[in-house]
Design brief:
This protein is an alpha/beta fold. It folds into three domains: 5-126 and 297-325, Rossmann fold (3-Layer(aba) Sandwich), CATH 3.40.50.720; 132-293, Dihydrodipicolinate Reductase, domain 2 (2-Layer Sandwich); 342-420, ACT domain (Alpha-Beta Plaits, 2-Layer Sandwich). It contains 14 helices and 17 strands. The protein has helices spanning 14-23, 58-61, 79-88, 98-114, 123-126, 132-136, 153-165, 169-179, 187-190, 193-207, 226-234, 297-314, 357-367, 397-409, and strands spanning 5-10, 29-35, 53-54, 68-71, 92-95, 119-120, 143-150, 217-218, 237-247, 253-263, 275-283, 286-293, 342-352, 372-380, 385-392, 395-396, 413-420. Helix 1 (14-23) packs across helix 12 (297-314), helix 3 (79-88) packs parallel to helix 4 and helix 13 packs antiparallel against helix 14 (397-409). The protein is elongated and about 80 Å long. The termini are far apart.
């Protein structure tokens, strides 16, 4: 009988538990050791042999019998050191660690290549949605130049609930925290860090150029209001947190995360609650969208186990396994500064209901080379202020920011400035 492939699992949280339960269905795979923070913590996992547990991950990364190390603890440390040590000790790696890949991917892939080992990370981008393997294999013949994605279930859940229930952000966030969709400290999700890590990695793979995370523009959802949701709907849009990456004709990369008014005709407008989706555009494939569960025990475990099996199938077949899945980019992308980008904008302004106020706003915009697609005054409040909603045509970001300063200097309050899908 063929020897079993031995796995070392670092982390037995939600995803780790799903991986353990799923791997029980495969006769050729054996989990040899599991590193956890607390060995004595009660775990309701059927079939778990507590003798497999250790609180010393070095027992995994230095164990000569283990073939594949699966890292599921997240964060930079100790994950980086553990993966680096595992590679040096001849282990292939499967990880779901988007932060590590975005911040220290260049280092970790260099170590992997030095020791002729593979790092697979399908679960790090969109949970259960297969995207890395398709991009590196079946879509390898394409020139992909545009990505738009919803890759954070927490923010998508919050925005969907705000839309459906006409609720304010703070109220929905509290509900999401009670349900476990949002962390006690939700900063990583709601401020767009999580999505930024994911789009930086996905764009690096797709464009075959390294995207530095510090050059990814990031804006979260904390300023989105119920009033913006209603206005967007009236105008034919939904508001989503979009992670996007675009490669222009000069080979420069525009990579960012921010809220966006997405046309109701777009597929992404109908990706709701915790569902994720990734849309790719290129030649010759055209445009495709992959959607599904972006997080959770078994959806994410699906991607992790898929990576494990991909490596397991190649072990002992070649001196250089899975060449298509290895890091092949060494060039840093030239990045486009957000101020130099061209966008359409939704602007919500609270202005004193004086004669000529709309004309003044229009003049400020015209003086900054901003054409208006629509401008609507919605209501007058008891304090004699009016809510004015503006949609612009395409305009340079720098011009838009300068116009906003003058609109506010004229005594108006800009409640919201949100980019619009083109």
């Amino acid at each position: 009988m063929k020897n079993k492939i031995k796995i070392g699992l670092i982390g037995l949280g939600t995803v780790g538990s799903g991986v353990f339960k799923t791997l029980k269905n495969f006769d050729n795979i054996e989990i040899a050791k599991i590193a956890v923070k607390n060995i004595n913590k009660p775990r309701n996992i059927e079939g778990l042999d507590n003798s497999l547990l250790t609180d010393n991950p070095c027992e995994i990364v230095k164990n000569p019998d283990i073939d594949i190390v699966v890292e599921l603890i997240g964060g930079l440390e100790p994950a980086f050191d553990l993966i680096a040590e595992a590679l040096k000790n001849g282990k292939h790696i499967v990880t779901a660690n988007k932060e590590l890949l975005a911040k220290r991917g260049e280092e970790i892939f260099a170590i992997a290549e030095k020791y002729n080992k593979v790092i697979l990370y399908e679960a790090a981008i969109a949970g259960g949605i297969p995207i890395i393997m398709p991009v590196k294999t079946i879509l390898a013949g394409n020139k992909i130049n545009h990505i738009e994605a919803i890759v954070n279930g927490t923010t998508n859940y919050i925005l969907t609930k705000m839309d459906v229930e006409s609720a304010q952000y703070a109220d929905v966030l509290k509900e999401a925290q009670k349900l476990g969709y949002a962390e006690a400290d939700p900063t990583g999700d709601v401020e767009g860090f999580d999505a930024a890590y994911k789009i930086a990695t996905l764009a690096s793979i797709t464009f075959n150029k390294r995207i530095k995370i510090e050059n990814v523009y990031r804006e979260g959802i904390t300023k989105i209001r119920a009033e913006d949701m209603k206005s967007a709907n009236d105008l034919g849009y939904k508001i989503k947190l979009i992670a996007s990456a675009h490669l222009n004709n000069n080979g420069e990369a525009d990579v960012r995360v921010h809220p966006m008014l997405v046309s109701k005709k777009s597929t992404l407008a109908h990706i709701d609650y915790v569902t994720n989706a990734v849309s790719l555009s290129g030649h010759p494939v055209g445009s495709i969208t992959l959607s599904g569960p972006g997080a959770g025990e078994f959806p994410t475990a699906s991607s992790v186990v898929g990576d494990i099996l991909a490596i397991a199938a190649e072990l002992n077949t070649s001196d250089y396994i899975l060449p298509m899945m290895r890091c092949r980019h060494s060039e840093d992308a030239v990045m486009v500064n957000i101020e130099d980008t061209i966008n359409k904008y939704y602007i919500s302004i609270n202005a004193h209901n004086n004669k000529g106020v709309i004309g003044k706003i229009g003049t400020i915009c015209a003086n900054h080379d901003i054409s208006l697609a629509s401008i609507v005054q919605r209501c007058v409040s008891d304090d004699n202020t009016a809510d004015i909603t503006v949609i612009t045509e395409l305009v340079k970001e720098e011009n838009m920011r300068n116009a906003i300063k003058l609109i506010e200097a004229d005594g108006n309050k800009v409640n919201s400035l949100i980019r619009v899908q083109v």
